[in-house]
Amino acid sequence: MKKPFIIFLFILLIGCSKEDSQANSTADLEVGESTTLDYGQCHSITGPDLRICLDSISDSRCPDGSTCVWEGDAIASFTFRSGTETNSFSLHTYRNYRQDTIINGLKIELLEVTPYPVLNTRIDPKDYSAELLISN
């Protein structure tokens, strides 16, 4: 009996935190402009009820000050909303992985994830941001 209740509370808390992060929205972004989304931030895109949110970043890039076998990759996960339709997707910084996608005729390209990791320095997930270019 307790297990379903705990699962319900967990789902409820996740839902509430998602709404709070998506409430952090800024003014309209023009198509053709680059923009920077901070962790948990959303931007409205000029058009009929378009919105993009940065949900999370996973960073395995080779830290400055270290020697690595490969350069690593940062993965930025987003939610794109068009009216009532929602698309979740991830983009990568590593050139051999997907760095852009097309949704609703808009090309969404990941330009950069900051900050870049430094050896022996922990980065709080909330300190990350992703620079995007949204174009036709």
**What number is the mean pLDDT?**
84
Largest sheet: number of strands, sense, barrel closure: 5 strands, mixed
By helix and strand content, what is the structural category?
alpha+beta
Summarize the helix and strand pattern as letters. HEEEEEEEEE
CATH-derived topology: Tick-borne Encephalitis virus Glycoprotein, domain 1
Count structural domains: 1
Question: Helix count?
Answer: 1
Strand content: 35-45%
Low-confidence stretches: 3-23
The CATH architecture assignment turns out to be: Sandwich
Oligomer description: single chain
Protein name: Lipoprotein
Q: Overview of this structure, please?
A:
By secondary structure, the protein is an alpha+beta fold. The protein has one domain: Sandwich (Tick-borne Encephalitis virus Glycoprotein, domain 1). The chain is built from 1 helix and 9 strands; from the N terminus they run H-E-E-E-E-E-E-E-E-E. It has a 5-stranded mixed β-sheet. A 4-stranded antiparallel β-sheet has the order 2-9-8-7, with no helix packed on it. Strand 7 and strand 8 (106-114) form a beta hairpin. The longest helix is centred in the first third of the chain and has 22 residues, at 2-23. Mean pLDDT is 84; it is low at 3-23.
